[in-house]
Specification:
Chains A, B: One of its GO terms (molecular function) is transcription cis-regulatory region binding. Two copies of one chain form a homodimer. The first copy, chain A, has 202 residues and is mainly α. Chain A has nine helices and no strands. Chain A has a domain of 131 residues: Tetracycline Repressor, domain 2. Helix content of chain A is 77%, strand content 0%. The longest helix of chain A is centred in the middle third of the chain and has 26 residues. Chain A is elongated. Chains A and B meet through helix 6, helix 7, helix 8 and helix 9 of A and helix 5, helix 6, helix 7, helix 8 and helix 9 of B.
Chain lengths: 202, 202
């Protein structure tokens, strides 16, 4: 991963131990915000779950708002990093989208709190909400365009297709990742890949 | 429309005048909740916008929670009713999905508050949130199955496809309806219809 874990401005950790502490705080924040929602969540709830002193929290973050903002960015980056290797390893453009969806639903099943946190950012921190989806859509647009350039996909793929693909993935993750995981991820991914390859026409 | 407008239990209006008052309260509630969010919205803000006395509010609703719940149901029904005629009039299954998306984005441009309200229901009233999407997905599943039975669509269309279509529509409505309406609705709908017809494969 080519990124620093997010902390408040000027508070980035400088040591490996510091990075581990920050990682622990963000993981604890995901549970705290995911279980309690933004308004009921507390900094002391986060530090208790992380097993760190209150001072350690303020070493990295200025406020509850700041750790929430960092968490949205962190979850967005985590999804990207979790999905990327399978997408890169896929043999063609449709297989890449199939792999992306499969990895995404798998990630969601292990991190069901991600929906509540990203969705609540629409109200708590609208800039983070918008940045998450705008960034994700740009990434998908570039991926589709690269696959089109290689001859895998139709030449006119665009931002509209990217938003369509992102919307599918988000709602399939909600239905088959968060709500109910009795349907196989591979089955869902195969169905969508076939739809992306050939459409729903007869 | 074959439905009664929603009020609290036992509080349904019995006269045409009552139905108009209730309609005015729900329209005012959409603006109040859409602009201020659930927590900052108030019953007095709703009655002021609707131009009705506080007593009229309590004729139809028990509480702020009750009018919010009714509003989510009402917006869900409004979308359905707005989209239905064009979907029914479409000559085939792909054209029906195209018409549904076109009508939906058009509706969103006129009612941008719908996203904030439905999205906030995930936190304020999770049962309403779930009911809205489960009901919408069931409707799309039936529509796709009927089109498949007529030979318009592939025979194996399923709930997975319905959730994919719903997710596309929701995110395209967010991008091209709420965020920015400089791209033509027909252009977006044509692009998605072509993708549904033939896929993204070369």
């Amino acid at each position: 991963m080519n990124r620093a874990i997010t902390a408040s401005d000027g508070k980035a950790p400088r040591t490996e131990r510091g990075r581990r502490t920050l990682r622990g705080i963000l993981d604890a924040a995901a549970i705290e915000f995911g279980e309690r929602g933004f308004h009921d969540a507390s900094i002391s709830g986060i530090t208790r779950r992380a097993g760190v002193a209150l001072g350690s929290f303020y070493t990295y973050f200025d406020s509850k708002d700041a750790v929430f903002r960092a968490l949205v960015r962190d979850m967005s980056d985590q999804v990207r990093d979790h999905v990327a290797p399978a997408v890169r390893a896929a043999p063609d453009g449709i297989a890449a989208e199939r792999a992306g969806l499969e990895q995404f639903i798998g990630f969601v099943r292990q991190h069901k709190e991600i929906y509540r946190i990203i969705d609540e950012s629409e109200f708590v921190d609208p800039d983070s909400f918008r940045l998450h989806y705008a960034t994700t859509a740009e990434r998908i647009t570039r991926r589709l365009a690269a696959a089109a350039a290689q001859g895998d996909l139709r030449a006119d793929v665009s931002e509209v297709h990217a938003w369509a693909v992102m919307g599918m993935n988000v709602f399939l993750g909600l239905r088959y990742g968060v709500w109910d995981d009795d349907r196989g991820v591979e089955d869902v991914a195969d169905t969508v890949a076939e739809m992306l390859r050939s459409g729903l026409g007869r």
